[in-house]
Amino acid sequence: MVLWVLLIATIVWAGRLSKSHKDTALVSSTDIEVRGGGGNPLVSSEDISLWLKEQGVHPEGSILSKVDIASIERVVGAHNAVARVNVYLGYDGRVKVDVEQREPIARLRVSGYDMYLTEDGYVLPAKGCNASHVKVITGDYAPLFGSGYAGSVATIVRDSIASLDRYMVELEESKLPYFKLHIENDKALREVKRSAPKRSIFDSKEKFAIIEKDYLERRSKATEEHNIKSRLIDEDIAAIERAIEEALSLKRSLVKQAEEFDAMVAMIRHIIGDGFLCADVAQIVASGGKSSTLQLAVIPRSVNATVDLGTTENLERKLATLRRFYDKGLSRIGWDKYSNISLRYDGQVVCR
What we know:
50% of the residues lie in helices and 20% in strands. The protein is an alpha/beta fold.
């Protein structure tokens, strides 16, 4: 029992001592460690130190207990190139800022765009980042995200599809009132038809003829009104169905663009992972997107030619074919004989 009391007393005393120390000790240093980025860092420890100073949250010279950890993490984490940040206070007065940045694998420099693509499927504007020596994508490619977007491509695709799905559900539900109008319209015509007169024994032939003529005129008018109203209702329903089909078409296009984008990123990863291709591919040319199929080509350093890869189908096999052609074909024919090498068709190399 005495030991427990002593243990608790020691813990309380240590806690008070630590608090007293933090309330009086000044920050002795700020250690900013930036990890990740591969060999192409987008931010440096100097950049982060500058951000903290600009935002007035740099811990330098502060009392240890006054260091605003949450604000430091917020300021550093707000940068698109930062994947994770953690701030720790050391008993020795040091503040440690541990930053993990994203790893860029390509720079997208098409019309109106200047963005980095990262290993974790993130895209971010190049502005505000250090220049990174990665593969450059040029051409008239139209990405599925805006030029100012920063975030996961998978997230924007998922959110866009979810938004389209909700919109289509709303459109389907908006057809219900028109179906009810159809039912009411049909019911009104049936009621008129049910009111067909029956000649009684007291009606003369002439009187019944007048009654029947009046009924036929009412039925003809009711039928005409029914048909007009029915046509207008159908037109309204058809307009909704066209809107649904447009949304479905947009969804299919979005899925297709996402698959093509993923295939292009996978191709870039493959090139980076292949020592020869990584050294040889100087630039990637992309065209299409949105309303047209993505087409890819690479500009190598080893030959004075453009290598046309065509669509995103079977890209790894096409690159493997290119390697074999380099090894077995060009070494015999000559590296400067052709200006265009086409790998559009699986397993075939067409040179011009």
